[in-house]
Amino acid sequence: MFDFLAQLHRTLLQQQISQASFLLAYSGGLDSSALLSLFARLKQQLPQLKLRAIHVHHGLSPHADHWAQHCRRQCQRYDIPLIVEKVRLSNQKGIEDAARSARYYAFKQHLKPHEILVTAHHLNDQSETLLLALKRGSGIKGLAAMQVRSELWQIPIFRPLLDYSRDQLLDYAQTEGLSWIEDESNQDNRYDRNFLRNHILPPLRERWPQIDRTLQRSAQHCFEQYQLLQELLLPVFEQHYCATDRTLNISGFTKYSRHKQAFLLRLWLEKNALAMPSQRQLSQLIEQVISAAQGKQPQLRLENSIIRRYQQRLYLTPNYADISRQIIKVVFEQEIPLPDNLGNLFFQLKTTHIVVIWQKTSGTVKHTLPLPNRDQSIQIRFHYSGKVRLARNRANTDIKKVWQHFAIPPWQRSRIPLVFYAENLICALGAFVAAGK
């Protein structure tokens, strides 16, 4: 039998992660059971190895609770801490995609800083992944399939079994006397991966016994070509990318070839941890957003995010709720929650002035404001279409020009808390304080 343990140790050394902490993705099936056993045995040789495991409970099978109990027993046997995370699947995706997204969201939630997620993907999985990418019409990044070390959704991933077949893992598991569960859904050929696994790949392997190795080589060639493209275009990308706000400057962008534009856009979306768009979506982004006339405010929705353009920059934002009509009455010395994840406000009443503190995820904004007249109520609003005076010696200016002066994108203007004394705009928090009469 192949010495998996020695090879695992060598792989850790080659990847320079022998001192890392690991979170093992443990479903309880054959593959992840072999993975758990190997790392438990390795920990006996390397006591400094830090291991945890996570089991994602999808609730799709009537046996799901039994599987979770099985995983608990195995981890207790190996003295490896186990997290059992129950998830609910989104109705917006197919069940395969929804389950995968839920798993990785759970992994990301539990992954500690400097910890690496370890999965039990093997050679047969690689073949399935490559064929699924071909079915989707993926480019070379998608056709690169899986690598031993990679990052997905800002999660560092290690796949130490990727070079070994399922038969080799089965041989190891049987020799070691491992116990594992069988997921009955693996026989359901309505799912694309199962269809490939159960109906397409077996006759291919019978005809060409080395087909899995061949497909892996093709995936590796695609990965190397993608890496080369990144290396060649990264200097160009860095000329356009602004790391402080993660925007993309598209000045001069249309001078590039269509292929170059598409690749730079993919780099930007990858930098923002967004799933790769389809060819159709990329074409829409180039034609309808980047190539739109100056002065326009085009946008394109990708999953739950919106790509917006303003002053020759592309921004990636959530799909914000419309809060423009909301009005909030101010209460002093109490935390005031703002809508749509905008944070909280706190108003402090002083003898000669008012202090306003806006606590949001990106930091804290603080303003000192004059006292209102006794008959004036104080409100927070999110919309104003009149004029404002920025200095005593200047004329009133239309609010639209004020927003433009401060280079505040249109979608942010209705997300800035506006402080009103009665019907008078006093302050746009984080932007300006209006001058008195």
TrEMBL record:
The keyword tRNA processing applies. GO terms for biological process: tRNA modification. Coiled coil: none annotated. One of its GO terms (molecular function) is ATP binding. ATP binds at S27, G28, G29, L30, D31, S32. Pfam families: ATP_bind_3 (PF01171), TilS (PF09179), TilS_C (PF11734). Belongs to the tRNA(Ile)-lysidine synthase family. This is tRNA(Ile)-lysidine synthase. One of its GO terms (cellular component) is cytoplasm. Gene3D superfamilies: 1.20.59.20, HUPs (3.40.50.620). The lineage of its organism: Bacteria, Pseudomonadati, Pseudomonadota, Gammaproteobacteria, Pasteurellales. It is an enzyme of class 6 (ligase). Residues 378-436 form the Lysidine-tRNA(Ile) synthetase C-terminal domain. It catalyses: cytidine(34) in tRNA(Ile2) + L-lysine + ATP = lysidine(34) in tRNA(Ile2) + AMP + diphosphate + H(+). Ligates lysine onto the cytidine present at position 34 of the AUA codon-specific tRNA(Ile) that contains the anticodon CAU, in an ATP-dependent manner. Cytidine is converted to lysidine, thus changing the amino acid specificity of the tRNA from methionine to isoleucine. InterPro entries: Lysidine-tRNA-synth_C, Rossmann-like_a/b/a_fold, TilS/TtcA_N, tRNA_Ile_lys_synt, tRNA_Ile_lys_synt_N, tRNA_Ile_lys_synt_subst-bd. Its EC number is 6.3.4.19. It is found in: Cytoplasm. The N-terminal region contains the highly conserved SGGXDS motif, predicted to be a P-loop motif involved in ATP binding. CDD domains: TilS_N.
